[in-house]
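Researcher: Go.
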Amino acid sequence: MDVSVIIVNYNTKQLTKDCINSIIEKTTGVTYEIILIDNASTDGSVELFSQNTNIRFLPQSQNLGFGKANNVGIQAAKGKYVFFLNSDTYLCNNALKLFFDFYENCDKNIGAIGCLLKDKNLKRTHSFADFPRIGQVLLARFINPLYKLFGNTYNTLDNDSLIKDTPFKVDYVTGADIFIRKSLLDEYGAFDPEFFMYFEETEMQHRLTKAGYPSYILPTPEIVHLEGGSIKKTNKRNIRKMMMVQRSQFLYFKKTASRFSYILFRIMFFFMRIPFILFASLTKQEKKEYLRLLIS
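Model: Structure:
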């Protein structure tokens, strides 16, 4: 088996169905399997995908989150390579073959590889970034309000100066499309189970890069990422996501930065967020939960 495609589904039945169909339609020249892990969906996903003979369906009794669910898929994978693919993506060309050929013919140590993702309008969207750094995060928190005054955002993702027509090295590939040799995951570990969602792919690639296996972007595979297409954009949902991201960011720095830097970061971050707690349009309960997160 050449490639094990691992998809995690949580109440994204139609998106996941479209994703699977695109893999089957576009993939030739490699042997592959599709492993679908369902995180206790309630939208009819279990009933639909349990009947699909084109996939290996692994329903879970609870929502394991992104990393843990993918780890379940790794344990079941038979492929030489593993391809982590978000359920809200679809392939536009023979991406599996292109990733596979690059890895097979590359004569240097490589870790995770991904591509330049496109959004629903076929314009380039978030695909890679530098590893987060404490100083950068604090600076962004300070500068972002100033940028917003002019209708802009301080962006630290997808450095355009790195993009080439040939494969190029990056710090990390976004978790929407990660192609990697399974033996690397067996040796250095896959997704850290302490992360429920967000930053798990960043921490994993940080580990691999330290071990001498950096990440790369290939310009030739074409994949559309309908980022957030399954999320209803309500204020309550946005607050929940913000706290989830923040919790994972804290965990990432706890694992990758020095103890002194981490403690200093938490103290500075706490004081920088006081205005948000005081003036943001949050309920008292939401403010209490966020404050609890900041001092945890």
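Model: The mean pLDDT is 92.
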